[in-house]
Structure formats: structure tokens, C-alpha cells
Design brief:
With 131 residues, the protein is α+β, with helices and mostly antiparallel strands. The protein is built from 1 helix and 8 strands; from the N terminus they run αββββββββ.
Length: 131
């Protein structure tokens, strides 16, 4: 009888340890999902300009290089240099107090960096300027 009680206690302890270890959930690190927006601004020398923003709606990110292609196929490169942003933060696609010359049409962006959990990403997004 004593052996049975000892066996039962050891079995319960082993089962508890197994279940506690087996119930851990893996930390989710979803692929970032971005929405684009822009503001129309006045340029210092006259004329209209655009400031673009990307918002990651499902994860925090570190932002690296951003390739930007205008509707007229001009290319720009902007580097956030690994800056970290929380989920839903508006991430500028240009230096502070600067803007791109306003061109109507579809602007294309390739955003590269890593998610909060460290998974690398390279994502293509667009913003259509109609006004």
C-alpha cells in the first residue's frame, strides 16, 4: 500500500511538471501589416509636397531601408537605421520638415526591417495620391 501511495505521488508530480511545460504558448510574431497615409504640405520654395507615413497595425517593428518609387518612376531611398516603433505608430517616410514633390498617382514603397520578435521582413505597399 505504501508503495502504491509513493508511486501515485511521483506520478502526479511528473504529470504536473509535464503539463506545465506542455501548456506554454509560443509567442506570436506576426508578419507586419502596414497601411499607408500621406499629408499634403506646402513646400518652402513654393508648390505642393507630400509627406508619407506607414503604420504597422499588428506588431511593433524596427524599420530599416525604405525604397520609394514615384508615379513617374523616380526612385528615392530613405533609411530609418533600425529605429523602433510600437504597434500603430505613424512612421515617417522622410526626414523631419522635408517632403516629396507632389505627384498624383500610385507611389510604391518597399519597407524592410524586423518585427518586434526579430523576424526580418521586406514588404511592398502603395499609396495612391488623387487630390
Amino acid at each position: 500500500m505504501k508503495k502504491l501511495a509513493h508511486f501515485t505521488v511521483i506520478s502526479l508530480i511528473s504529470l504536473s511538471i509535464f503539463m506545465a511545460g506542455g501548456c506554454k504558448k509560443e509567442t506570436e510574431d506576426p508578419v507586419p501589416s502596414f497601411t499607408m497615409s500621406y499629408d499634403s504640405v506646402n513646400l518652402q520654395g513654393g508648390g505642393k509636397g507630400l509627406q508619407f507615413y506607414a503604420t504597422c497595425t499588428n506588431n511593433g517593428v524596427s524599420m530599416g531601408k525604405i525604397n520609394i518609387k514615384t508615379p513617374q518612376d523616380s526612385l528615392y531611398l530613405y533609411d530609418q537605421k533600425g529605429a523602433s516603433f510600437d504597434k500603430n505608430a505613424a512612421i515617417g517616410m522622410q526626414e523631419s520638415n522635408t517632403a516629396y514633390t507632389k505627384i498624383k498617382g500610385t507611389w510604391k514603397f518597399n519597407l524592410a526591417g524586423s518585427s518586434k520578435g526579430g523576424t526580418a521582413y521586406s514588404i511592398d505597399v502603395t499609396a495612391t495620391v488623387s487630390k
